[in-house]
Write a structure and sequence with these properties.
The complex is a heterodimer of chains A (about 260) and B (about 400). Chain A is built from ten helices and seven strands. By secondary structure, chain A is an alpha/beta fold. Chain A has one domain: Rossmann fold, CATH 3.40.50.970. In chain A, strands 2-1-3-4-6-5-7 form a seven-stranded mixed β-sheet, with helices on both faces. In chain A, β5, α8 (about 195-210) and β6 form a beta-alpha-beta unit. The longest helix of chain A is centred in the C-terminal third of the chain and has 19 residues, at about 195-210. Chain B has about 400 residues and is α/β, with parallel strands linked by helices. Chain B has two domains: about 5-245, 3-Layer(aba) Sandwich (Rossmann fold), CATH 3.40.50; about 255-385, Rossmann fold, CATH 3.40.50.920. In chain B, strands 3-2-4-5-7-6-12 form a seven-stranded mixed β-sheet, sandwiched between helices. In chain B, α1 runs parallel beside α7 (about 140-155), α10 (about 275-285) packs across α13 (about 365-375) and α11 packs across α12 (about 330-340). The longest helix of chain B has about 35 residues, at about 215-245. The N and C termini of chain B lie far apart (about 60 Å). Chains A and B meet through loops of A and α2 and β3 of B. The complex binds thiamine diphosphate (TPP). Thiamine diphosphate sits at the interface of chains A and B.
């Protein structure tokens, strides 16, 4: 028996243990090796698929590396100006209250230029889900300092490390958001290990179920990596995230009402 | 004479130019293709090569407000942006010009969403032509550097006190490398004295800056602001002459004519595409065609006199626009046309719109434009506004 026929025997439906969800399109992703966006996309796509809400879900993409998310997850998308996704999502969800509306935003988009929009959407308690991908940097523009950049962290605009006296303190926006009465579920997750990805998936499911129950705003921060921006290899990036980001951005649920 | 030339990108050249001007405050929010400029500047500040302060702000809207705050206490200030960022700043741009704060900005020309695009055209800055800023468009990295130095002289002139935007074509200029001469710091210090302004907060002369106005005085404010921008025409000329005497390079003030002396047919353009037009002009000249280029440098104030002078001498003028004012024509064309209408002789005119969202404008396309202008001369082509090299069905 040749190797090929042997393989063909193995590749059959009965032996299937893992399958990419159909919601994740076959387009080649533009994300850099080691980037967390791809894994997060996969988790979101799987949950939408499993809840069978593909035709009822609208994503609002940010300006940032994930601006092209519409190429990867097969649902309806619209694109907001930098930081404005929560405002767009507010209108869409209010006019189509039966739909699942979510925003997907980076830390530059959400915590910097879009800080006002997110605070007000949370405060109003819009019935949407917010995915907040925190890689402590502006990834798309080439790794400049963000409000979420850690003290001492080297970036393209803080070549000797972030000096909090000059550049302000590192912002824990998720903690701020948890204080607002409009938010019902606020959690900080990662996608660092398979176990973390499974936990993240549970959180994503819970958030979309909150939409079903019209509970208000669910906010999921995902602490992620940016190998290109951090100038580290994917493995080094994971290590750096564990050593530096996890102690500061502690994983766990801040609010679940 | 010993010169200090280094191989750098247009963004870096702008950063070097700014550094030589010793601004006290730089405030910016990153956006492609401006990022390298602000990264270099933040590095220069952190390394202690510059005395100024670099402020990391949360948006462009804050960047321009920081610059106004700094300028209002007499600080020399710089910001840089592009496209969406420039538009997000728009409210502050009007504030800054109305408040007569001579802020200097580098704008990396980039298309405007939607559709979202990071690539170059002139739709960002041209849509803000009326925000009261002086606007210059450069053709190469050296001009970008030199114009930073000239910009502070022009903007801070006591009769002008108007902010100025130096425009560089995104990617074509910002991200390509050239040999650029870095002027001597001492010479720059002599050329550009410290910023002094009557328009600042001061305990000796207490005053309110940035106030409200009523219908009975608003027109007067705007009249004075317009006079100041018009006045900058003389200042631009003076500064360019002095710049040549000090640094040996000149940029021909408001416009540069290239082989227009005896030209019959001339193309008008702004920014980096002028480089390509020059090459085509040389080629067609060799073939015996009397063609030329008018490079418009300043879009505000507008070189009305220079365009009129040219219109009196030529038979046809074509205008390349990397922008479109929807429902009418290209903005450069509208402005050029308005000047041409003030001369008595007839000039055949046409508008060529293209190069949007980063599409290259090729030598062949430019050659074709010249031929179309000639066709206009023998009446085989009407005057028109044409989107060139369209890949879509038109029913015109
Ligand atoms: C008004 C405006 N300002 C600036 C930009 C440039 N810009 C594009 S993406 C981005 C930051 C992206 O960082 P982040 O939100 O953290 O997402 P990431 O790319 O890291 O996923 C910036 C500043 C823009 N597009 N619009």
């Amino acid at each position: 028996m040749t190797a090929t026929t042997e393989i063909n025997k193995i590749i059959n439906e009965d032996n299937l243990v893992y399958k990419k969800t159909n919601l994740l399109l076959d387009n080649e992703m533009h994300y850099c090796p080691g980037c967390t966006h791809g894994v997060i996309h996969k988790v979101i796509a799987e949950v939408i698929d499993e809840m069978d809400i593909q035709n009822e879900t609208i994503g609002v993409s940010p300006v940032g590396c994930s601006v092209l998310a519409y190429n990867y997850i097969d649902i309806d998308w619209q694109e907001a100006a930098h930081g404005r996704a929560p405002a767009l999502a507010t209108a869409t969800s209010r006019l189509m209250p039966e739909k699942y509306v979510f925003t997907y935003q980076g830390d530059g988009d959400l915590a910097s230029i879009g800080c006002a929009e997110i605070i007000h959407a949370c405060n109003r308690g819009e019935n949407i889900v917010v995915f907040f991908v925190n890689n402590a940097i502006y990834g798309m523009t080439g790794g400049q300092m963000a409000p979420t950049t850690l003290e001492g962290q080297v970036t393209a605009t803080t070549p000797y490390g972030r000096n909090t006296a000059l550049n302000g303190h590192t912002m824990k926006i998720t903690e701020m958001i948890a204080l607002l009465p409009g938010t019902r579920y606020v959690t900080r997750q990662s996608a660092e290990t398979p176990a973390a990805v499974r936990k993240l998936k549970k959180a994503v499911r819970k958030a979309f179920e909150n939409t079903t129950e019209k509970k208000g705003l669910s906010f999921i921060e995902i602490v992620g990596t940016c190998s290109s921006g951090w100038k580290l290899t994917p493995t080094q990036s994971n290590e750096w995230m564990k050593e530096n980001m996890f102690p500061f951005y502690q994983l766990g649920t801040l609010k679940d009402e | 004479m010993k010169t200090n030339k280094i191989f750098i990108s247009g963004d870096e050249a702008a950063a070097y130019g700014v550094k030589l001007c010793r601004p006290h405050v730089i405030a910016a929010y990153p956006i492609t293709p401006q990022t390298i400029t602000v990264e270099r500047l933040s590095e220069m500040v952190e390394k202690g090569e510059m005395d100024g302060e670099y402020m990391h702000v949360e948006s462009e809207h804050s960047a321009i407000s920081v610059c106004m705050g700094a300028s209002s206490v007499g600080a020399r200030t710089f910001t840089a942006s592009s496209s969406q960022g420039l538009l997000y700043m728009a409210e502050g741009l009007h504030y800054a010009s109305g408040g007569r704060y001579p802020i200097v900005m580098m704008n990396a020309n980039r298309s405007v969403a939607l559709p979202w695009s990071i690539y170059g055209d002139h739709r960002d800055s041209l849509s803000l032509l009326d925000c009261g800023w002086i606007q210059v468009y450069v053709e190469d990295a050296q001009e970008a550097l030199d114009m930073m130095i000239q910009a502070y002289r022009i903007a801070e002139h006591k009769d002008v006190l108007t902010p100025m935007m130096v425009n560089l074509d995104g990617f074509i200029l910002t991200h390509t490398y050239e040999l650029v001469e870095i002027p001597d710091q001492q010479k720059v210090d002599e050329f550009l004295p410290a910023f002094v302004t009557p328009n600042k907060m001061s305990f000796e002369e207490p005053k309110n800056l940035a106030f409200s106005s009523k219908p009975d005085d608003n027109t007067e404010f705007k009249y004075q602001q317009n006079q100041a921008v018009l006045k900058s025409i003389d200042v631009i000329k003076e500064v360019d002459q002095e710049f040549e005497a000090t640094f040996g390079r000149k940029y021909h003030d408001m416009v540069e004519e290239y082989r227009c002396e005896d030209a019959e047919v001339v193309l008008v353009a702004i920014g980096s595409v002028c480089g390509t037009v020059r090459v085509v002009v040389d080629k067609l000249r060799e073939e015996g065609m009397k063609v030329g280029l008018l490079k418009i440098r300043f879009m505000r104030p507008f070189p009305e006199q220079e365009v009129k002078d040219l219109a009196k001498r030529v038979k046809a003028i074509g205008v390349i626009d990397k922008d479109i004012s929807f429902g009418y024509e290209g903005t450069v064309y509208t402005n050029v046309n308005s000047a041409i209408s003030k001369v008595e002789n007839y000039v055949y005119k046409s508008n060529f719109i293209g190069g949007l969202g980063g599409r290259d404008i090729t030598k062949a396309e430019i050659e074709d434009m010249f031929h179309k202008l000639y066709a206009g001369l023998d009446k085989s082509r009407e005057e028109k506004v044409e989107f060139f090299s369209l890949n879509v069905e038109t029913n015109e």
